[in-house]
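ZP: hey, is the C2E complex queued? I don't see it on the tracker
AM: it wasn't, my bad. submitting now with these inputs:
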Amino acid sequence: MFTFAQEQVNVVAAPWYNIVLSGQHLIYSNDSAYIVIKTTAESVITASASDLVLLTLLAPVNIIILLLLVLAVSWLVNLRFQNSLEKYTLKVLNSQTIELLTSLNVATEASIAKHSQLEQLQTNFQSLNTYITNYTRESEVSIYQDKLTHLIDRHAYIEHLAKQLRLAEMDHFSCALLFIDLDGFKQVNDSFGHSFGDDVLIQVAIRLSNVLRHHKISNLSPISQLEQNLARLGGDEFSIFINLKDDKNKALEVAQNVLKEIERDFVLGNKLIKISASIGIAVYPDSAATPQALLQMADVAMYRAKTDGRGIFKVYSPEMGKKIRRYHYLLEEMRLAIASSNFHMFFQPIVHVDDCAIDYFEALVRWEHPVEGSITPDEFIPIAEESNLILELGDWIMLESCRQMSAWYNAGMKKVAISVNISGVQLKHYDIYEWVMEKLAKTGLPAKALMLEITESTLIKASNKIIKSLEKLRAEGITIAIDDFGTGFSSLSTLADLPIDVIKLDKLFVAQANDNHKYNEIMHSVSELGRKLGLKVVAEGVEELAQFELVKSMGINCIQGYLVSHPESSVNVGHKVLQDNINFMSVTGTGVWNIQKPLQ
Ligand code: C2E
Ligand code: CA
Ligand code: CA
């Protein structure tokens, strides 16, 4: 407390810190300020202003207020700073996004400048997002889509299958996979050209998509919008994946419907074609548990559907697996066998019924496997045909047969011919005229000493081009036999139109003729028809004397069968014909096959 005499003081109003001092009056003395506390007539009682201010400010409540004040001020400053920073960042981001969009050729809105930075950024981000979604979809489509049919390809399908099988495993339900292969599609391509074939594949894809929609088994990819339950695996192979959670029979129903849809006429331009499909079905988890294995098993079942007559479906069973393994094993072994000369030709005589004079030899291929021993042509020829390996093997068979016959011909068998089995695959792949003539030229065999055996089922399906080539060969002197006649369902009247010289009645007839009246009748009719048409009739598979007598009584010209001879090696034929009846041969140009059992 300080007391001043009235005349000593000059009281002034508090300036800025008036707020703190609540409008107190101050007096100054010796450069210090004093707050007037009480004024009397003589004196003025004061207190030191600095002390009082200090005391006031340092009061605990005021410290808190002060702190709050400092905080508020700093927050305000910060907010202002942040606001301007944010604005700056938004602006930079905006211009960068616009730059990006422009470089991606995405149009940015013209009115955008009127919006706030935040709105601008939002619009730009939306454009970018749309662009990214479209881009992802397009790139997924371009990676996974089959360019021709627009279905997903094998790669995408396998990925999809893997996901579906994981779901099936977790939720314990089964699924099925259909392996669909078109029948005779190669012929469509060969006959009408590849672009026509492509159109057929596109139509097939559309029909299959409709089947999926009809059965409500679609599964569209959320990104690419492509159908994932239907794929083109390659070539003329398609596949459908079906969830069997709600209906165990769904796969069979779908398969049935697919067959029906494919069998409907295809009208393309001014052409109308008919095709069919073979379907294999594999079921998860019964048949297999991984996408690849499931596809493989369905493929095996499809193969069985093909061999069992085409236009049908088959569900995989383990027994089918064995067959397919044998198929692949034999295919590989056959390739090696061709390279290492494990094939040989055997020859079976076809003799005249009257005198057992040899009419011709049928060349029959034999395979001596180093481990398995001999493998029958009935087992390996269909595999060679299916794989086209028959082309390579058939080349060798033809050359070897002509070479052998040429040697016999030069040794005196001038009236004997060699007959070579020709597969439908060879007819389709070669210009058969050129191919045969080249073999004759190479081996020096006269055309009249060669016969071609073509099965009835192949011959009735032969194109006009093939028939013309066969006519040309006949004009050269080569004879043609229709083989396994009676098994190919052609009518007898078709015989008159075919370019043939010889009918080989299938061994089925001879085997049944003595017991089955109908077979007997057919043999009679064929024999008669042959005579009328000037065709030679050969009965295959004559094993017993009774059969021989029956055949003879029917007026059939020649016989082939174990009764006369099994197929023999060239060495044995040489011994039998050349050594045993060299004199007969030199006079007649043929030989007589000596039969152990007497024929009459
Ligand atoms: P294919 O053309 O009908 O040949 C006649 C088959 O009947 C031969 O069987 C022959 O050994 C057999 N055979 C002959 N006489 C009798 C008999 O009295 N009884 C019985 N049960 N069978 C007899 P192989 O040699 O096993 O040939 C089977 C089939 O394989 C042939 O039937 C033919 O379709 C095919 N094949 C054989 N060799 C060739 C060939 O070199 N090329 C082609 N493309 N196919 C061939
Ligand atoms: Ca034959
Ligand atoms: Ca035959």
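AM: back. The pocket of C2E (ligand 1) is lined by residues 348, 363-365, 376-378, 381, 397, 421, 423, 453, 483-484, 507, 541-543, 560-562, 567 (CB under 6 Å).
ZP: great, adding it to the tracker
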